[in-house]
Amino acid sequence: MSSSGRRNEPAGAGPAGAERAPRLPLTDEYRRIRGATAGLCEPLAPEDLVVQSMPDASPAKWHLAHTTWFFEEFVLRAAVDGYRPHRDEFRYLFNSYYNSVGPMHRRPQRGLLTRPNLSEVQAYREQVDENVLRILERDSLPPDAREVLVLGLHHEQQHQELLLTDIKHLFACNPLHPAYTKQPPPAPRAAPALSFTGYPGGLVEIGHSGAGFCFDNEQPRHRVHLEPFQLANRAVTNAEYLEFIRGGGYGSPACWLSDGWATVQQEGWERPIYWMPTLEEEFSLTGVRALDPHAPVSHLSYYEADAFARWAGERLPTETEWEIAAAEVACRGNFVEGGHWHPLPAPYPTPGSTAPQPPLQMFGDVWEWTQSPYTSYPGFAPLRGALGEYNGKFMVNQLVLRGGSCATATSHIRATYRNFFNPAARWQFSGLRLARSAQ
Amino acid sequence: MSSSGRRNEPAGAGPAGAERAPRLPLTDEYRRIRGATAGLCEPLAPEDLVVQSMPDASPAKWHLAHTTWFFEEFVLRAAVDGYRPHRDEFRYLFNSYYNSVGPMHRRPQRGLLTRPNLSEVQAYREQVDENVLRILERDSLPPDAREVLVLGLHHEQQHQELLLTDIKHLFACNPLHPAYTKQPPPAPRAAPALSFTGYPGGLVEIGHSGAGFCFDNEQPRHRVHLEPFQLANRAVTNAEYLEFIRGGGYGSPACWLSDGWATVQQEGWERPIYWMPTLEEEFSLTGVRALDPHAPVSHLSYYEADAFARWAGERLPTETEWEIAAAEVACRGNFVEGGHWHPLPAPYPTPGSTAPQPPLQMFGDVWEWTQSPYTSYPGFAPLRGALGEYNGKFMVNQLVLRGGSCATATSHIRATYRNFFNPAARWQFSGLRLARSAQ
Amino acid sequence: MSSSGRRNEPAGAGPAGAERAPRLPLTDEYRRIRGATAGLCEPLAPEDLVVQSMPDASPAKWHLAHTTWFFEEFVLRAAVDGYRPHRDEFRYLFNSYYNSVGPMHRRPQRGLLTRPNLSEVQAYREQVDENVLRILERDSLPPDAREVLVLGLHHEQQHQELLLTDIKHLFACNPLHPAYTKQPPPAPRAAPALSFTGYPGGLVEIGHSGAGFCFDNEQPRHRVHLEPFQLANRAVTNAEYLEFIRGGGYGSPACWLSDGWATVQQEGWERPIYWMPTLEEEFSLTGVRALDPHAPVSHLSYYEADAFARWAGERLPTETEWEIAAAEVACRGNFVEGGHWHPLPAPYPTPGSTAPQPPLQMFGDVWEWTQSPYTSYPGFAPLRGALGEYNGKFMVNQLVLRGGSCATATSHIRATYRNFFNPAARWQFSGLRLARSAQ
Amino acid sequence: MSSSGRRNEPAGAGPAGAERAPRLPLTDEYRRIRGATAGLCEPLAPEDLVVQSMPDASPAKWHLAHTTWFFEEFVLRAAVDGYRPHRDEFRYLFNSYYNSVGPMHRRPQRGLLTRPNLSEVQAYREQVDENVLRILERDSLPPDAREVLVLGLHHEQQHQELLLTDIKHLFACNPLHPAYTKQPPPAPRAAPALSFTGYPGGLVEIGHSGAGFCFDNEQPRHRVHLEPFQLANRAVTNAEYLEFIRGGGYGSPACWLSDGWATVQQEGWERPIYWMPTLEEEFSLTGVRALDPHAPVSHLSYYEADAFARWAGERLPTETEWEIAAAEVACRGNFVEGGHWHPLPAPYPTPGSTAPQPPLQMFGDVWEWTQSPYTSYPGFAPLRGALGEYNGKFMVNQLVLRGGSCATATSHIRATYRNFFNPAARWQFSGLRLARSAQ
Known about the structure:
The structure is a homotetramer. By secondary structure, chain A is α+β, with helices and mostly antiparallel strands. Chain A is built from 10 helices and 12 strands. Chain A is 30% helix and 11% strand. Chain A has a 4-stranded mixed beta sheet with strand order 1-2-5-12, with helices on one face. The longest helix of chain A has 30 residues, at 143-172. Residues 1-21 of chain A have low confidence and may be disordered. At the A-D interface, strand 4, helix 8, helix 9 and strand 8 of A face strand 4, helix 8, helix 9 and strand 8 of D.
């Protein structure tokens, strides 16, 4: 692994990079995003939509209903005088975790709700959409409610990604290995060699500021003192991770955090969750396919990402390091609109051209585990009311991931975006990028 | 409770009694029984058919496929030279518990099989039916295979009943309490007062003999020495069970077996599984309905049935006692063909008429827990080959139930029939009839 | 395996057979049995006495206290006006499972009671003994209380055996494999070849009658119809069981009951609980010793005993069969007083002599699993009051074992004695004897 | 709650403050610390020393042996040519979690080790002490080994504290509520009113530097940018926490982190672990005593500490904030040498005197939960070899606590000391101090 000088020119458009579209008027944006959710369900049969493969996952039909509930509960009920809910029981059935709203159906039992069936849920979506659009078109939404509606669209995009990862998990549990879509794998492409870029550190700022949308957990923008560091030019590849496996990584406690090692032992982990025992194929949304040595390794838990980094003699970046590097890079990449449904090898940077320059793949392909526990920024204030439960109450036992994945919507991600999962979670498109402290 | 003299005239047709139809030619019987299974699924949406509400239950779609697999595995593969299975993976996916056939999909994961979807499973049923019927029509089935085919039909009828009780459990888990069918409850009818009939005991014979079909566990017919006993004229009613609840039965360890009491404590049992907390309504296949005080109490575990009997100062019958009494009674009752989907009050016997005489309700309405552990009869020999796993390997930790229920097919039940479940099972139509030792 | 004609001469004294001592006057018997319990604790350190190695087992100190509690609760409180208990909290702490007496310390937490410590428990024993002996010597005990006191002595003997098997389990969990006692293993002795004795069956009687003590579950004596059967001349040996292991028994689902196979898979069973992985040594109360091929296999669960019998093409006897055969045999054997602490090979019968004749080893060495679930005899009536909880409430999910073991007191066992454990229990000295139905 | 100006004079000696003794020569220090461990066991019976009340806790005897193993494994084996271990099996039995040393006895089974018994463990201690002291007296220890020996002494002090908290948990499980020691509670004393002191923040430094001992996780000293903040003058008291309970805190999901609320529901938490249901008494090392309203609330999980702070409209400090404030305060307080075995009310500061000034109780009484997840400092390097497992591998799923407790040795604690536990842990003397961001 070599370490190059710091590169910080703005990155150009890469082969897999989707141009970031300008934000549409809110009515169109609402239609577009709601429609995208329905579109993701098209390849699925009613049976696929109802089943829950593990407590962490939710049925696709539940995602369809819950995202609708969000608009009904937080926009229509709040902004429409005398609003009559589509069906009273849905307040209970499709509340995810908002204790302030009231009691809720138990999460591990979401998969038992064969009723309301798909067509009833579709009717629910249609009626709520009609109501929302009517208000939007009349331009009669108070500014507060308008902000919540925008939040609801970002919320919907989060569930779009979960819908895909939950379906992938469900199909992976099926010995028939069904494909979500029959998309053929892309033409082979070599990823660039691993190298590191240096960053000077110092007193930096992270967090969101300015006009665009962000979640409460990205605020306030604040100062952090940072030591000099280096960051890898791309995500760790399947080939590199295979070396770790073949080198006995899953059998060497010295590589692992104590809780990670306990998990490896207890769960019998021997490879990434969707890799076949041969280590030559992996299950993907397009079915079982050959493992691409150049593509980023994906579906790692934090424990695995951390163990790999330790084994490689490097470490994971902190979220501050990641954000500082990402702030200099255009937010393009292999997102869900690209229709690849899978991470792709990093594009090859062309010196002297406007093609992307390192760090590559900061956005899209795989979420990148950082070593930062998910905590509040200094001065953090959660949203008022029930929506204060959106992010703040999860600030323990989770690690931050950054950058979005091949299942993330293009308009959803940004450099300050903080995703978070518990360290044993493996069903997201989660990989890693190496970092080092400056020598 | 009064005790009358022994009555043993053959019973006449009761209001809820379905005439026992003569057995059809095998081809017709096959069509009829296979068709009945499909008929049971008609009120259900694809979503309802795929979900598994607990490890003990199976998805309806799985029942559809597994019963088909039974004919494919044990009839077509065995009897048809060069038979090409519908799909190789189904041998693994739809094997229930036959280790001799090979490895199998894990039972608690049956509900994850969204694929093959319903139409694929229907195609499977059609193709296997076509193959079976072709052989049957050519009359080319060897006698051994013919016997297995008949076994397969009884097997299918067992799964018809499970399909209904599994759906009932699934719907009961749904806060919307969906109804399987909208059938209105029957007109009220008073059950006769509780009384007991005496039986002299002595050296008796139980078990199946003769020409008709029976399972291996009903054989051989053998002698048992029996002390004199008395048997109740009908099943215990909801009203009687309500007295037990109101009298503090669920809080009195003295009524319970030690394992039963531990289960009550651990599971927080306070009433039968489908009763509402008000004790005035219960969930049924026709939705939530008022509790009928005259109808038999149903969906009891063995622990509850035994505790009730102890509380009432009586006991459960042994399976020998039950069979001796049942041998004198016509096999009529409230079976699945009656379309009640629920137990009915015992019919009122009319002295001097041909109307049913005690013991009433020996067949249909509810399976009756006996105090007999499920063991082999002396000289028991399981079927040869894989089908030896059908019954014999379950002969531990289970109790025998007798008589069939409102979800049992009329042609499926007989006096020697031995059903069995573990003592904590509550999702079958299981009730009880009281017995006493003669004073 | 050969089958011989029926042999039913009374058996003579075998080398390992302890002469059955005549019952002493009650005062002496009380002193003797209470003293024996204390004697069993002599090789143990205070640390050994306090720990509980699994929920099924109890600390030795708890046994010392609970058996004392039994006399205090059921004899002294009942028979002595104004009796002041040794310490009020002991009623709660040392109640085992008598709900009628009141609430109790949770069973799995018995091992947390470091206090009262050993000397306090010894003081408890001494004070209760003093009180009991004072009453006994004054001969002022009402007949009812006297009967309960006798029950208490048999109860104490049951706990003596449990104390030994619980300590054995505890020591087996310790990688140091400590020995309870340093007793050298006996001189090698060959067991006789396996053969079978025929019994005619018919209408027989089992259960206890007459003057001596018995538990309520041995009554009433009653008639049973029995088919002709054959019974093995001795218990199954280690060598025979080794064949089963080497023949792949633990990997062949066809040998196992369904629940047994599930247990094998889940627990990873590959051999009897105390055998070393080499299959050449086993852990015993005298430490690790070479496996004696001629000694009875011991510490089997019912599942293992049943699987072995199935594999051998035979079956386990019913408890009726066992009792009919045992009724003709003197109650002698390798009991705890012999000081072997381990099963011994069956003695070699000498034709024409008064030496023991088959069936050998009916008493002592190992408890023999029967295929009979533990149920009530027809007409069974539990003891009145709290002592009705002694036996009756366990009559589900357990199998009957017969004959006592090398850890049973000589004066405790008889042909009608019914021991019972759940089918997965392995920590008792439990083995098996084969049976067959007559051809 | 009022907020005062910043106070940062060095604190004087308070009534409960133990003068920090100068470090002794290493030989004396070794004798003193090893002797202190033995001293802590004096009030205990052998039974108390062997039992493990939960997987998180260890038996006192195990602490005695493991701390000895540490010296044997890391000092004697490393520094003494041809060292012959006391007993080979101890390497396995008393290894806690050092995978580099080899396999180890499973943690939840430490309580099954009745052997080696107490006297054998004492002999082990004596022999190892003799060996260590001989080397120390000859001054023949290489500098590296000398450092490890010093580490071993700090390690021993950590286990002294655990020994006390583990015994407290064990005794709390005993319905007899035994006292570790009979110490009467101290005379009542009012704690000062709650107030806050402001700190300016900026670019600060935390972490250990200089000559004294520290653990690897306290290094390197590094810069952190800190926003202005305020810190409470003392720990939260029982009276304050009682308000939270009485105000419904344990029933209000809005106060809790999501994982915390799930824990409250699942475990049925309603009050601190050792409080009696009356909320008027608590279990302590001196037995059940009246709850002192002025003493710091103790034995809180992180979830409870965080919920209280949220309910109070404040927050927990970060570890940086805590350390910055603590750096200005003398390291005195209610430590284990004080012999109180329990937290005491904060001393009353006397204006104008040399008596302690706010922040009070920074050291001793209770460990204070910070909101900081336990992570590595930038540039952290674990110790080389097996001792690298000491701290580093636990850096996930844990929160940092600061300041020591009434069970901590005086010479063990310092401002940079980082303790860590998982957020549900309640059996340590863990409380909290409130903080705020500057307005």
